Amino acid sequence: MLKLVLTLLFVGLVVVCNGSPLSRESSESPESIEAPMPDFFQKISEQCRNNTGSDDAFLVFMESFENAFKCVLKIDVDRFKTDFNQLTNATRTAFFTKYCAEARPLVSCFDDMPASVRPCVKENEFKYMEAFFESIPKTLDLACKNNGEIIFNMVDATRLKCFQENAKHISVCVDTYTESGLWNDDWNSELNQDKCSTLTNYRKCLMVPLDTCDLSDLIGIYDVSMNAMLRLSPCANNTEESTGETHHNNSTDVI
């Protein structure tokens, strides 16, 4: 199950990188910058069926998943996109004060998800799911820190253009991961040292375009939840702490 939440996490990072409202302004076609999205729902369905002998548990999980995202969508998405597209240094403080305040209560939208997926996982792996969801507030705090500095950097035209030009590298990273044994093995199997290097190499792969485009701190969004889970696994020695996460741990300057 750790591999499931890790997959959701890395797909989420790709969405942050490629799915920014600003990305529509690029002259690149969507196909040229969109990374492939693995069919992880099929994986979950198979695991639920294997563990319980029916599809009922998967249906419960999907209902919880859908309810969570309906809850999250209480935020005015269209207004958010408009405000994000108009984001400048002058509007930055107001933007992140408003939307970070709106986002924090939405963390509770995911409260039912760990319990809903519990029948589909081994009991000793449930801890990873809990660690992932418990890390969400810290991830949000990091994204909001210093008036959204990490996210605001993506507004910079030079950085954005650079990232769009290097976005195909993200696809290569995802392809490499989904072709690995880590993705294709039984999702309820434990990680081992042989597979820990896959996660290390995946992060290194992501860092290439981020470093190239002066967006290195963005990896901190990935690291917070990743490290919370890996510290409970045989891959504990493979945790990485980004500059952004380090600064977050040493500072209380959060909106």
From TrEMBL:
Keyword Signal: yes
Residue ranges that the Swiss-Prot or TrEMBL entry lists as coiled coil: none
Signal peptide: 1-19
Top-level lineage group: Eukaryota
Source organism: Anopheles braziliensis
Record has Signal as a keyword: yes
Protein name: Putative secreted protein
Database matches in PANTHER family: EG:BACR42I17.2 PROTEIN-RELATED
UniProt entry keywords in alphabetical sequence: Signal
Pfam family, one: DUF1397
